[in-house]
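Friendly challenge for the regulars: who can give me the structure tokens for this chain first? No prize, just bragging rights.
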Amino acid sequence: MPSNAQQDFLQYINDNAGPFIERLKEAVAIRSISGDTNPDVRKEVIRMSIWMLEKLHSYGVTAEAIPLGKQIINGEATDLDLPPVIVGRIGEDAAKKTVLVYGHLDVQPANQDGWTIPDPFDLDVDTKSGKMIGRGATDDKGPVLGWINVLEAHYKLGLQLPVNMRFCFEAMEESGSEGLDDFIKVEAAKGPNGYFGNVDCVCISDNYWLNNRTPAITYGLRGIAYFNATVSGPRVDLHSGVYGGTVHEPMTDLIAIMSRLVDSQGQILFDGAYENVPSVTDEEVALYEAIDFDVSELEEFTGPVALSQDKITVLMGRMRNPSLSLHGIVGDSSGPEAQTIIPAKVTGKFSLRLVPPQTPESINAKVTKFLNEQFDTLGTRNHLDVQMVSSGLPWVENTKHWNYDAAISAIKAAYPDRKDPDLIREGGSIPVTLTFAENLPGANIVLIPMGRGDDGAHSANEKLDIENFITGSQLLGMYLYAVAAAETN
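First reply, four minutes later:
Bragging rights claimed.
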């Protein structure tokens, strides 16, 4: 049974759903697209950061905006300011646990193609369907504002937070979190005097339920190694009518080697792709069996193209096995019109999703060796250059920890009519999770999603359900109470 303080908190969240939605609308309206290097757009990203700083100040949090320097583009320093990282702290009670919260304030671009609302940055609130459509609604402004809702409720009700809280909000997550890793390393090294001092656990809400019914808790993330493979040869683009059949063509070579990376069943083909990946245990299989998931639901979104109809096979393909995806070719004659050039240089883009104990460095060596060996078999006079352009380590957390007990307890309190939460690993990557894990080794990390599986982050018509925003705010608050009550032995 919730305490009086918890009941008051829950009621406050319910009573203030309208103002909370208006605040989310205000946040979505700030076009904080970190990937756009137009100086005017970057000002909006910075404005979003300062907006969040002011919200933290409003509810008693000691917070500041820490500059991260200038942005580096293609290895060159620019005059473009990185948005500051917003850090804050509230509560210094040594008898209480300390929770660090992370979220991001930037968003993906929102081209009009596919959107059913006039402006993706004008949050469309449909009380009949219960959906709020807008860029950033679920990724990640809604979840971040869930924490602001928690702070407001306690501040306005005059309630003490049950734990000490620390905050870290960035605005470059969608563009590689430039500058954040170095900041976290430096700040963590300050020990008790830094913003991350004495942190007992970390909570991140930047992912989603597996479906639309069952809340989830995420304990693992795949890493990533992203590659560019560039084939070049001719001095300039050539006319295929004049030079076709007379020269080695870069596009032909590139397609030949890319086709050898992965087969149509998703099997990675280069040597060592699955090296040291642990065998599945009976305990792990039981976790997958318990997950509320049906392949038919996957195919409702993707179409009838699943690699298997077996639930566990599909889940492991998404969560615990490495994968390789081909993303595109730069330098080709794309577009609807017929073009007959032979490109002088083409770059193939592909990435691998990694699982422990794989590292981007070990995969880089294997991929580079394999592609060069395959290229040598072509008998071509073109040149191949393979570069790993971005990377992130995989992560798996200990779920037999009081932090996970607290998360499960909070979900049961917030969603008493739902099934027990799914314990899942995510197929995607959130690199900052590894940065916290490496620099705060004593802090257990949990990911508690707010959004549903059909929210469409990064896609047209990105949305967040009103229920998930309001009940999700209650969940985050109840998580803090559950952390405070958790037995640490």
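Residues 402 and 487 are 7 Å apart (CA to CA). The mean pLDDT is 95. Your move, everyone else.
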